């Protein structure tokens, strides 16, 4: 089983527990972020350490700016002396990227579209919808097509023999199994055919095949229909009505993109407020402030042109909200650690001072 199938199986199990696929995505997000909590603590601690070490690093850069090789060597020695890893802050992002890609691939797959693409959650009408997508409706008995439409079969079929029915018959190479007889003329029925030997059955069973129920997806529009294919010679053939393909704007997805922009802006603002210090360079502060404003805007415009499904946006929004709460909690934890260290240091100094004071009368005698 591939990663896409595993992700869908996991989401399906969570949906059965939570009661909806939308809640399954939220639970999936929270579980993933909780697993990354120790790494996030390391990231935030690294950022705080970087702020404290920044003035000394700047001194090294100024002192050895005429010799870049020696400057790099001194900086590495400085990192080692202070037990600081400059790449630690990037680790959570590097881990989250493949998780998002895996979820994105799952939500865009025919398996998910067939199982739960039409699922409604809160104000989201479809979890598989992008900002601009095909206006056709899955499972309505017709395809919304253009002249260059392409189709693929589902992974399994329900097959009817002369004397029995066989469920979950595997289809060999489902991406290439479906072909179009003739040319496509939108608004006119099309005839789809699947070679009989695409069904993974024994030869004696293939001879007895009468018909098969197979889900077929329009690759370009992701619209899926459950069709009944009748046997005709060595092929399975199905006729299906068509409509001209048209696009539809999904305003609920636009709202999700806007919500993502707001939450990522808040997340960065909280992160910057917890890591800024008095020693931080003013230029660096200005750059961070600009990036905190420009980056959300850039990402929003990117998402307008890249087809991100609503389910993936729900993951990103939930992840950003979790990040805001996590940053505040970890920052409080680091502050308590710093106070504990400071108190321990003060207690040691008080003990040393007390010993010195007690020894004075003995010295005078």
Would you kindly provide a written description of the structure presented here, covering whatever features stand out?
There is one protein chain. The chain is α+β, with helices and mostly antiparallel strands and 365 residues long. The chain has eleven helices and eleven strands. It has two domains: 3-114 and 250-344, no CATH class; 132-246, no CATH class. The chain has helices at residues 3-18, 21-35, 37-63, 68-81, 91-107, 110-116, 174-177, 203-206, 251-275, 282-305, 310-364, and strands at residues 132-134, 143-145, 151-160, 165-170, 179-181, 190-195, 211-218, 224-232, 235-240, 242-244, 247-249. The strands form three sheets. Strands 4-3-7-8-9-6-5 form a seven-stranded antiparallel β-sheet. A two-stranded antiparallel sheet has the order 1-11. The model has no long low-confidence stretch (mean pLDDT 77).
Name the overall outline.
Answer: elongated
User: Main sheet: which strands, in order across?
Assistant: 4-3-7-8-9-6-5
pLDDT < 50 stretches? none
Number of structural domains: 2
Distance between the terminal alpha carbons, to the nearest Å? 86 Å
């Amino acid at each position: 089983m591939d990663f896409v199938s595993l992700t869908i199986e996991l989401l399906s199990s969570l949906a059965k527990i939570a009661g909806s696929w939308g809640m399954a995505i939220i639970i999936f997000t929270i579980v993933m972020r909780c697993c990354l909590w120790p790494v996030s603590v390391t990231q935030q601690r690294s950022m705080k350490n970087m702020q404290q070490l920044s003035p000394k690093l700047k001194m090294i850069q100024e002192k050895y700016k005429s010799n870049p090789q020696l400057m790099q060597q001194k900086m590495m020695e400085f990192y080692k002396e202070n037990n600081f890893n400059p790449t630690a802050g990037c680790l959570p992002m590097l881990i989250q990227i493949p998780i998002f890609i895996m979820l994105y691939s799952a939500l865009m797959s025919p398996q998910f579209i067939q199982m739960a693409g039409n699922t409604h959650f809160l104000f989201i009408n479809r979890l598989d919808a992008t900002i601009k997508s095909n206006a056709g409706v899955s499972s309505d008995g017709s395809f919304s097509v253009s002249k260059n439409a392409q189709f693929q079969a589902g992974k399994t079929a329900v097959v009817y023999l002369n004397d029995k029915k066989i469920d979950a018959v595997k289809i060999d190479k489902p991406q290439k199994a479906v072909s179009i007889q003739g040319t496509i003329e939108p608004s006119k029925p099309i005839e789809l055919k699947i070679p009989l030997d695409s069904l993974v059955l024994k030869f004696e069973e293939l001879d007895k095949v009468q018909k098969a129920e197979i889900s077929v997806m329009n690759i370009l529009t992701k619209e899926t229909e459950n069709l009944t294919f009748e046997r005709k010679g060595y092929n399975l053939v199905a006729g299906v009505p068509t409509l001209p393909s048209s696009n539809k704007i999904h305003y609920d997805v636009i709202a999700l993109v806007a919500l993502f922009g707001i939450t990522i802006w808040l997340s960065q603002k909280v992160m910057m407020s917890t890591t800024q210090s008095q020693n931080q360079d003013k230029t660096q502060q200005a750059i961070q402030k600009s990036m905190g404003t420009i980056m959300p805007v850039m990402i929003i415009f990117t998402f307008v042109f890249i087809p991100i499904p609503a389910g993936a946006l729900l993951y990103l929004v939930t992840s950003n909200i979790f990040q805001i709460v996590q940053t505040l909690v970890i920052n409080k934890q680091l502050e308590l650690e710093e106070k504990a260290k400071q108190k321990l240091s003060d207690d040691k100094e008080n003990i040393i001072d007390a010993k010195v004071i007690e020894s004075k009368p003995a010295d005078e005698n």
